[in-house]
């Protein structure tokens, strides 16, 4: 665990395109940075502050990685919330947040942004609020703007996708597109860090958006981007859904090849034992095959 802060500093440095010498300039020598990143040395509080300024991260956020208990606590909290969201169990999300919210860890920084983001989801899915969630999304993004680094940037992209999805659910399509495009713009700024999972999620949502507004050529473009990202990273995340969307677009555009896409989607859902999606795609496949 003592090497967590060194690994984190290295990741932040590389995400900003800085060499060890550039990070060390005006603070320490390059050798110190090398030892720090390897976990062989601990910086003084003054030096840590200067490094944080150059790395564009708050000292509080970075210090989480220096304390094993704090690090494990933070990771466990965020993992629990994310797992509950994956299950669409927003009551559980609410319970987890309410259990921990009194901790001073959540007063600022990335954790504060994370909490605001998920409180917005709670307001929408549990309280059925239609305006307040967007205020919390914006507050979360403002909180993350205080710390400009790869972690905060990744979280901002995720929040923008969530925000766009809520606009989409409320049939606010123009607003949804603005947030999707903003997320896409942020993704273009991250080149050295693997965020394939976030890219796949965005490409899938883009394809759903364009299918909804009957722009099938644009939908196909994002299906292809999503499938390429999945296959390039050996990921099954949303791959079945992307093949289904691709097949649907081809069928609606009266193009060849939609049958193969539907079959690929069916194979993936069968492997995942996802009977609900398997039956849905089978029904759609039979519908469009009858039109041939």
Automatic annotation (TrEMBL):
Q: What is this protein called?
A: HTH cro/C1-type domain-containing protein
GO MF entries: DNA binding
Q: Which SMART domains match?
A: HTH_XRE
Q: Which PROSITE patterns match?
A: HTH_CROC1
Q: Where is the HTH cro/C1-type domain?
A: 9-62
Q: What SUPFAM superfamilies does the annotation carry?
A: lambda repressor-like DNA-binding domains, TPR-like
Pfam families referenced in this protein's UniProt entry, alphabetically: HTH_3 (PF01381), RNPP_C (PF18768)
InterPro entries, alphabetically?
Cro/C1-type_HTH, HTH-type_regulator_Rgg, Lambda_DNA-bd_dom_sf, PlcR_TPR, TPR-like_helical_dom_sf
């Amino acid at each position: 665990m003592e090497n967590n802060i060194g690994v984190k500093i290295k990741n932040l440095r590389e995400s900003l395109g800085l060499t060890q010498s550039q990070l060390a300039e005006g603070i320490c020598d390059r050798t110190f940075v090398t030892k720090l990143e390897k976990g062989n040395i601990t910086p003084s509080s003054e030096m840590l502050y200067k490094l944080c300024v150059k790395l564009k991260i708050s000292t509080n956020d970075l210090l989480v990685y220096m304390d094993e208990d704090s690090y494990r606590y933070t990771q466990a909290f965020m993992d629990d919330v994310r797992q509950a969201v994956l299950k669409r169990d927003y009551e559980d999300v609410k319970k987890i947040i309410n259990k921990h919210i009194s901790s001073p860890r959540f007063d600022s920084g990335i954790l504060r942004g994370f909490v605001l983001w998920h409180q917005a989801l709670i307001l929408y899915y549990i309280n059925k609020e239609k305006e307040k969630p967007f205020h919390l999304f914006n507050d979360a993004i403002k909180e993350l703007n205080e710390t400009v680094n790869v972690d905060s940037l990744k979280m901002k992209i995720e929040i923008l996708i969530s925000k766009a999805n809520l606009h989409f659910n409320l049939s606010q399509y123009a607003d949804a597109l603005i947030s999707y495009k903003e997320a896409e713009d942020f993704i273009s700024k991250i080149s050295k860090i693997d965020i394939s999972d976030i890219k796949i999620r965005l490409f899938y949502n883009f394809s759903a958006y364009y299918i909804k507004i009957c722009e099938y050529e644009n939908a196909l473009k994002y299906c292809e981007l999503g499938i390429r990202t999945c296959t390039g990273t050996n990921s099954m995340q949303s791959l079945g859904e992307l093949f289904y969307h691709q097949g649907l677009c081809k069928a609606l555009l009266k193009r060849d090849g939609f049958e193969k896409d539907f079959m690929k989607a069916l194979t993936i859902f069968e492997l995942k034992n996802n009977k609900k999606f398997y039956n849905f795609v089978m029904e759609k496949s039979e519908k469009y095959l009858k039109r041939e």
